[in-house]
Amino acid sequence: MPRWGELGATLRRVERWLLPGACLLCHGPVEADPDPLICANCRCRWTPLPEPQCPRCGQPLTPGIDCRLCEAWPSGLGGVKSAVWLDDPARRAVHLLKYEGWWRLSEPMALPLARGIRRGAGITLIPIPLGPARLRSRGYNQSAVLARALGARLAVPLWETALERRRDTATQTALTPEARRANLSGAFRARVAPPALPVLVDDVFTTGATLAEAATALLDAGADSVSALTFARAERPLAGAAADLARRAPFWSNA
Fold it and tell me: What are the residue ranges spanned by the domains of the chain?
């Protein structure tokens, strides 16, 4: 009887034969890629976040400006990292993963995520859960498939049921930071005592409200500290403007 791993490899070979390799982002050929979903050129277009970064929330810092993004976070949440900026190439990958059923995109998206994790004994990945209605309509949780791909790549344990989303919440896309916090207040509950070193996993970091609320649930259940990883981070307009101003300043000062 064939093993599941061998069967999966066979099915992927059949898939590549029926659907010749083309990158889902640029639609160019990817014959050299062993599993053609996103080509190497498109992965290279994902933009890593620059240093220096806030050691607590991972937000890139502008020299001389203190980070205020995480000042209202629970004290036990820190060590949050995002792999890339949510610019157009990364946004397309997130959209395909999240809304168009391409859950296997979690595998190439886990590659930059793996660089942000601090490996060590006791680390357990915990995906941000979806609400019941959204999970039914989507068919899977994009954060969970990301966490599975990351866990498989790094041989790190995963605990998908550690957190429960107690209620469906309104979509966060058009909400202000204050409205996001109010929308998520009390939305998560830890089902059991959390593991020693829980690491939350999500697809996109916007204001950090989701991570802060999920971390609060784990901390209330007994976790000493919580860290987190996200694939992409939405650039905050004011932070982006300040960074652009800092980049231009040397030019102006020498003019």
Answer: 1-44, 47-243
Tokens coding 113: 């995520």
Cβ neighbour number for residue 41 with a 10 Å cutoff: 13
pLDDT digits (tens, 9 = 90+) for 125-150: 999 999 888 888 889 999 999 999 99
Do residues 69 and 208 lie in contact, with contact meaning Cβ atoms separated by under 8 Å? yes
Query: In this structure, what DSSP letter does residue 164 have?
Result: E
Per the CB < 8 A criterion, the answer to whether 6 and 14 are in contact is no
Cα separation, 51 vs 18, in Å, equals 44
The third-level CATH classification (topology) of the domain covering 47-243 is Rossmann fold (3.40.50)
Model pTM above 0.90: no
Q: Per DSSP, which regions of the chain are E strands?
A: 77-85, 123-127, 163-165, 188-190, 197-205, 226-233
Helices (H), 87-176: 88-99, 106-114, 132-138, 142-154
Which pairing describes strands 123-127 and 226-233: parallel, antiparallel, or unpaired? unpaired
